[in-house]
Amino acid sequence: MFGQLVRQVDAAGVETRFTYDALGRELTRTRAGAVWKREYGTAGRVANSTDPLGGVTRFTYDSQGRLASRTDAAGQRMEYAYTPRGDLARTQDPAGTVSMTYDAPGKGCSSCGGSAAGRPVRVDYPTFSRLFAYDGLGRTVRETDVFGPKNETRGVNYVYDRAGRLAEKREWAHDPDLTHRVTKYAYDQLGRLVRETDNLGQATNYGYDAWDNLLALTDAKGQVTRFTHDDAGRTVSETRPLGGTTRYTYNATTGLLAEKLDARGVKTAYAYDLLGRVVGVDAYAGGRTEPGRRVRLAYDQMGRLVFHTDGQTAGAFTYDALGRKLTETVDYGSFNRTNTYAWQANGQPAAFTGPDGLARTYAYDTAGRLTAMSVGTGMVTLDDFTWTAPGTMTLPGGTRRRFGYDGLLRVTNINATSPADALIQSYNYTYDDAGNIRKKDTEHGAYAYSYDKLDRLIRSDNPVLTDEAFTYDQVGNRLSSADVSGGWLYNGNNELLQAGNRAEYKYDAAGNLVEKKTPERTLLFEYDLDNHLSRVADGNNATVASYGYDFLRRRIWKDVRGVKTFYHYSDSGLVAEMDASGNVRKSYGYRPDSPWGTDPLFVRENGKNYWFLNDHLGTPQQIVAENGGVVWKAQYQVFGKAEIDGSSTLTNNLRFPGQYYDEETCLHYNWNRYYDPESGRYSQTDPIGFEGGDINLYGYCLQNSNIFMDPEGNYIVAIPIAVPIAIKVLTKAAIFTVKVIGTIIVAKTISDSLDKECDDDLCEELNRIVQLAKKDLHRFGKGNAACKIGMSLEELRSRRDAWLNLAIARAQRDARCWEGGDYGHQQAQADAWNHVGKCQALMEGR
């Protein structure tokens, strides 16, 4: 009657059917057997929506028909309020209120130099406020954070050139006129960034072709990385400063990456199905016509990865009707092990069981904050929250951890007491104006840290271990270390050749460490076709250890002089170590909201649980039994080398976030590559190249391991500061579908989406806002909306803001109109948030 769509079949052949009421409003939507239902209120707006598993989300509206509240299927409620003009003025949940203040139409604002109507001038979060000031052209000229009982301030000033391009970024604290870090930008006549000058006056230069493709990246030492591109703007070669070229070819019909030839001569060929999904990956040693490794992948009708195999190991996944992972099984060849997952009605993790059979269940408050976690018969509780961060954690047996935070949710203190209330751990942190940790007082003494003008660690005064001091060259290579006699030498590829009198190094054509020679021993390193470390030998070429990996780049076994250990992972990180027969010898647990391999909660061995006491980064400092007795403890050098206390009775190999210590090499396995804590750098280049956030592809966390971490070995992450819960949840949405990004394959979620129009006025308006946000991204040009290394700060910021607008628009539209969205909606929303995060990370790295 109304001409509505009743049946749709997408490119994958998945059918979706729709039913409507007498007024033409959608009642049900059935996709691949899963049914979503809607009920309407008296004003014709959606009052309730029911997902395929029976979860009900409820909506209320104000007198203007605007969304006033949303209560999800788990009972978590978010309330909304608006300005008279209709802008969102306030969101509120039990964790706190976020309020926004805007300037008046045509009048500008008190902090603006002219009219910037409709722009936010103040956002008040539960623990801090962010203020914005604009010039007469509506450009942001100042961002200020106000926090703490004394209303401390820190911020950034932006200065523009005559053409309106960002010329300087000036960071300050307390007084906007007293900057502590300045970054300058220069452009060519076409407005392209050609030079970026840091706070030490060191410049990175960029060169382009006539089509704006990056041709040359010249670092502050004059070392040039060169690129070539085809007519479509795709990278066809990348050459390191001293040579060594990686080449790419593309399918002439689809434009997808067909082959990659690395500097070692290893060829990797990719095969796709009709939907552009990777279904085969074959790797060939130099000159070989038969693949040395062959990977095959399969997907379900919703586009989710359900199986992968390389002939040696295999993985399989199952999902519920909402696309959430239910099981994950790894076939190790002689045995297999499975993880099981359960979910709250609103999509938060409800339970997890790994190979050890120990069930972990999770409980949340009405704000979505984790408040309890059962581990077998024990219970962990969290309370006394500061916005989203817990102030107290009580462990089974009665050990209690307490946390303090400043207004930016930076950790200011951590302490732990035994069940008898005896002090076990005490860490107190002091930050400087740049946000660096200047002092750390602990139960074993005080640490003091010094930094250069680029915020690189140059000194650590340690209470027990030997004091440390470093100098660096223009790109962050260590030139000296107080504990090593002699200088540190590098070649033009930033490969460390000599660390004073301590070690000498050699590399292959791809930049992998192949030999490390010290006065005590020589180690030789070999790599497989996927560039994973596969074998370590001594100076006589006798095997010390060998390693194996699955398709997702996870190390799943190692063999050290005949003793083989298997490793099993969940979405949170390493969860089990097993012997050659598959018996679990050690297992691990994490909070469900922790980044990969970060802030472990417990380790289980011989039927007993032991509990981690970690620092602000999540690095283990001590491990205690349920009676509060310390069974393991360590002190660390500033770049992660651990000195284990002789009283320790338990072995612990977890180190910096995402890292696992290998005794046979003294390296730390870090998912995508290996880290050497002695030199404070990686033994391989970043597998995602300059997109990892550092001009030095061997560098660790911009030489500041106090406030940055790299849990996955390929992307720098700042220690957490205040972020709305919604953003935290959305950015964790990507799991397990295969996509080729640059030079490596990554696992993430991807599926098709429905483009059906919303069927009520509010949904139509929200959908219009989404379309406008998508259109806004087009101004950057086709394929050029993503943030990339080499972009100016203004380019990064404009893209971040555009992606943020799209992410928020999608979140509001999907929640209101699509019961949270189908798999495609969820993926599109997660992709937008991921773009926001990447842009922000690149901005913070400047």
From TrEMBL:
The keyword Repeat applies. Gene3D superfamilies: RHS repeat-associated core. Coiled coil: none annotated. Keywords: Repeat. Residues 405-686 form the Teneurin-like YD-shell domain. It holds the Pfam family TEN_YD-shell. NCBIfam families: Rhs_assc_core, YD_repeat_2x. This is Teneurin-like YD-shell domain-containing protein. It comes from Desulfomicrobium orale DSM 12838.
